[in-house]
Design brief:
- It is a single chain.
- With 449 residues, this protein is of the alpha+beta class.
- Helices cover 20% and strands 37% of the residues.
- It has 2 domains: 288 residues, lpxc deacetylase, domain 1 (Ribosomal Protein S5, domain 2); 144 residues, Hotdog Thioesterase (Thiol Ester Dehydrase, Chain A, Roll), CATH 3.10.129.10.
- The strands form 6 sheets. Strands 11, 12, 13, 14, 15 and 19 form a 6-stranded mixed beta sheet that branches. It has a 6-stranded antiparallel beta sheet with strand order 20-21-23-24-25-22, with helices on both faces.
- Helix 1 packs across helix 2, helix 1 crosses helix 5 and helix 5 packs parallel to helix 6.
- It starts with a strand and ends with a strand.
């Protein structure tokens, strides 16, 4: 193997107060099997939530990154995710217990507390190869005067170039950093990035205190910068502010769920823009995956589709299933890819509309729901059950589908339980998004024919 995945050998825990609330929480890193990725487990008040560390689970928060599943959340995950990425840990279970907010221990405001814990946990190689996301086409996102661009570049590591501009005495700082999951091939994460601390300017610190945040902290605990320099503290690096921004960026981009290889150029970007770029990169990879799947032999032809779905002409709207992914850790369904070939012989074109044939948007959504039912059927305890539509949310028709088009359908599992399922669906024509919807199902016993 040229680029093997890694996990850790044993469990190790860290305990400490959160940055904003000051509540003590305990974080425990544990081993995980290959291809399972990073998964957070939130334990609170007798309840437990499993939260995969992917950008689809990000909740919008000011000044930090939050992951959520249902009513339980994990706050300030960026420094932990950066440590996992910086040390090349691909698979781990991260349990978080204690506190009401679920904030991770802040340590000294850097990533060092997590790096030291992971090193004690003894990283080890696994048998599977890594499956990186390689940037092949330029992607640029902006927010106000902040810009973030992902560019084709190295195909075996990530290069980050970050330009930060702040008020005096910080000014303009530029940092270049090379992140490689292969030990010894990139810049040293432990010494160059992990010690760079969260910083806040004096006027920002005063405003946060007035809002009730961070009252347990003093300038000795957090890097507070006045117009004359750090208060009761000192910079660890002349460019520590820019280095910490790179640290945050690496942690946020790792929420694509795999290593990213290429070049990222950033100007004043923060968490919100980092999340936007992570989503755009996944969209780009998803498009490439759809194109690749169309060239391979189908996983299910129409005969196999008919064994799962009770629909028949003229309401069977999935012609074939290209691929189905399941979670290697739990066996739960994760993602399905299917095809609906749009032809002029489809019965609905007789009246929708004469002279201007357009596939009804409601039928595009119906095709997505059918693929969602196929995805949920892959869970063992759902065998023989029927996925009945329960609700639809965030339904949007983005582009038309006309005769001759090939609708590529995608369904991603959000939550799968014994009696219910929630999937997030999208339909594409070439690289254009045609429709999207969040669909929930009730799983019922199928009546015999």
């Amino acid at each position: 193997m040229t680029n093997p995945q890694r996990t850790i050998s044993r469990e190790v825990s860290v305990t400490g107060p959160g940055l904003f609330s000051g509540e003590n929480t305990t974080l425990t890193f544990g081993p995980a099997p290959q291809d399972s990725g990073i998964t957070f487990v939130r334990e609170q008040g007798g309840r437990t939530a499993t939260i995969p560390a992917v950008v689809g689970n990000v909740m919008k928060r000011p000044r930090h990154t939050c992951l959520r599943n249902g009513t339980l959340s994990i706050e300030t995950v960026e420094h932990c995710m950066a440590a996992l990425a910086g040390l090349g840990i691909d698979n781990a279970v991260v349990k978080v217990s204690g506190g009401n907010l679920g904030e991770l221990p802040m340590g000294d405001g850097s990533s060092r507390i997590f790096v030291e814990a992971l090193q004690k946990a003894q990283p080890v190689q696994l048998e599977a190869e890594r499956h990186p996301l390689i940037i092949t086409q330029p992607v640029q996102v902006t927010l106000g005067d902040a810009t973030l661009a992902a560019l084709p570049g190295p195909t075996d590591y990530l290069e980050v170039i970050y330009e930060y501009e702040g008020p005096a005495p910080v000014g303009r700082q530029t940092v270049s950093y090379r992140l490689s999951q292969r030990p010894g091939q990139g810049d040293d994460f432990e010494t160059r990035l992990s010690p760079a601390r969260t910083f806040v300017f004096e006027h920002e610190a005063n405003a946060l205190r007035q809002q009730g945040f961070g009252k347990h902290l003093s300038p000795r605990d957090l890097l507070v910068i006045s117009p004359t320099g750090p208060i009761d503290n000192a910079f660890r690096f002349a460019d520590e502010c820019a280095r910490h921004k790179v640290l945050d960026l690496i942690g946020d981009i790792h929420l694509v769920g795999k290593p990213v290889y290429g070049r990222i150029v950033a100007h004043k970007s923060g968490h919100e823009l980092n999340h936007v770029l992570a989503r755009r990169l996944l969209e780009q990879q998803s498009m490439q995956g759809r194109e690749g799947a169309l060239k391979r032999e189908a996983l299910m032809d129409i005969r196999k589709v008919q064994r799962i779905l009770p629909h028949r002409y003229p309401m069977l709207l999935v012609d074939r299933v290209l691929d189905v992914e399941t979670d290697p850790l739990t066996g739960d369904p994760k993602r399905a890819l299917g095809v609906k070939n749009v032809t002029f012989n489809d019965i609905f074109f007789q009246g929708h509309f004469p002279g201007t044939p357009l596939m009804p948007g409601v039928l595009i959504v119906e095709a997505l729901a059918q693929l969602g039912g196929i995805l949920l059927s892959q869970k063992l305890e759902h065998t023989g059950k029927l996925a009945v539509l329960l609700s639809m949310d965030k339904v949007k028709i983005r582009a038309p589908a006309v005769p001759g088009d090939q609708l590529v359908l995608e369904a991603v599992a959000v939550r799968v339980k014994a009696r219910t399922g929630h999937v997030r669906c999208r339909a594409y024509v070439l690289d254009k998004l045609a429709a999207e919807a969040d669909i929930k199902f009730m799983l019922v016993d199928a009546e015999p024919l």
